[in-house]
Specification:
The structure is a single chain. With about 220 residues, the chain is an all-alpha fold. It has two domains: about 1-55, no CATH class; about 80-215, no CATH class. About 75% of the residues lie in helices and about 0% in strands. The chain is built from twelve helices and no strands. The longest helix is centred in the C-terminal third of the chain and has 24 residues, at about 170-190. About 15% of the residues are buried.
Length: about 220
Amino acid sequence: MALIKIIFIFALIIFFIRLKWNLGLVMLIGALFIGILFSMTAEMIGKSIVAGLTDATTIHLILALAMIMVLENVLRKTENLQKMVNSLKGLVNDHRIVMAVMPAVIGLLPSIGGARFSAPFVEETSKGMNLSPAKKSFINYWFRHPWEFTIPLYPGIILASGISHIPLKSIILAQMPFSLAVIIGGIIFGLRGIKDEAPPAGEIGAKAYLLPFILSIFPV
């Protein structure tokens, strides 16, 4: 019975999303239906809302997202974001690779709201490529996450090693093909077909971009 209720709530969420309703409102409606269908009283629902809003994890998430937005805004105002992208474009002739590398580099350091932070880099790099918002979102999300299988900075790998008592090194080696598969899949389904008409920077030009890139990425 509980499974049927959960399936119904998921179906309801998908239905409202298909109607282009605000995602936050949809999730709130879904949460309310969970309380109603699982026989929670109004008082219990109210206490759950208060507990959720005052929970340390919730506050940490809100603060982290806010600070990410502040950092992103500072990078934009100081033109650091544009300098970073332009210098990497000078180092790598194929701008499609740059568009994938930026979220992948940021993804090496897992953080709350990381996709929100790497999105402007993809947006900046994709200028002139005539890509749809959905395509840019896919590239940003996809290339941020190939490391989840192999980088011990992600808590999931450490947790799996601790629970299974399998050495961390063994898990990383066993899952390395998955990371490679994600990268290859992203190239095939995300980057293939995108035209890049950027002129080559040349050997001397590329060297000139190295120091600006290091300086621009330093705040990150």
